[in-house]
Amino acid sequence: MFEYGFRKGKENADYGGDNIKRLYFPKQKVIFFEENKNIEDSLKLMIVFGDEKEFLYEVDVMKYWEYNDKDLIEKKMYPLIPLQLFNLRKKLNYAKKKNDINKIKELSIVARNLAEKLAIESKELFDQDEILGEDFHSMLLAIQNLIEYLNRNYIDDENLEKEVNIMTKSLYDPEVEKKGIEKGIEKGIEKGIEKGIEKGIEKNQVEIVLNMLGEGLDEATISRFTKIDIERVREIIKKHLN
Fold first, then answer.
1. E-assigned strands of 15-157?
2. Residue 65 DSSP SS3
3. Is the pTM of this model over 0.85?
């Protein structure tokens, strides 16, 4: 993506009074995602004009594989966090070509755990007001989509996509709703509504637990994904299924 345009000085005067329009290009950066030792630190482009005059244009390169999730968070490159999953593609592709089933299974576990880690980090950024709810949602969708891509092209684990989708949904829905409620309270919602809020949160927990149980997940897994205390999970199951 790149933007450009004509720009004038602070007082809208032509630069130097030469009546020359200047074309301004913002600083560019090219991102390479998959490791390649042949990629240099910058890309150079020689622009040749009609009068044979030449101009060397140089663009910095970001080698994504050199960054981990903590680096991206520190540098506030939040939209690039879900793409950490793409770093597994090269290893999965190699294992698939070798028909190394055990390695593919091992990488499937790595992918599942990494997806959960990245989703939780995204949630923490949302909780800290570093990203908006819609950004949080987009990052979780990116995690889901990347898991779907890896699974359907390399892993072929029928449970992987389902578990990641349930996990990301359990993180997004309750937290966004809860944060919206808290902001509403700060703006002066009457105290009488607070009981209704508590009932709404309780109802939401019940629906999530029962839905995940219906998908075949056990109590411990449900508790881990939703962060709902396991005793509360058991209480919900006992109350609504017995």
1. 23-24, 29-32, 42-48, 54-63
2. helix
3. no
DSSP-assigned letters across all residues of 102-159: HHHHHHHHHHHHHHHHHHHHHHHHHHTTSS-HHHHHHHHHHHHHHHHHHIIIII--TT
Of the candidates 65, 98, 61, 99, the one whose C-alpha atom is nearest the C-alpha of residue 80 is 65
Helix (H, G, I), strand (E, B) or coil at 227: coil
Convert the pLDDT of each residue in 84-96 to its tens digit. 999 999 999 999 9
How many beta carbons lie within 10 A of that of residue 242, not counting itself? 5
d(CA 36, CA 129) in angstroms, rounded, equals: 36
Task: Measure the CA–CA gap between 4 and 152, rounded to whole angstroms.
Answer: 39
The two structure tokens encoding residue 101: 């089933």
Query: CA-CA distance, 95 to 118, in Å (whole number)?
Result: 24
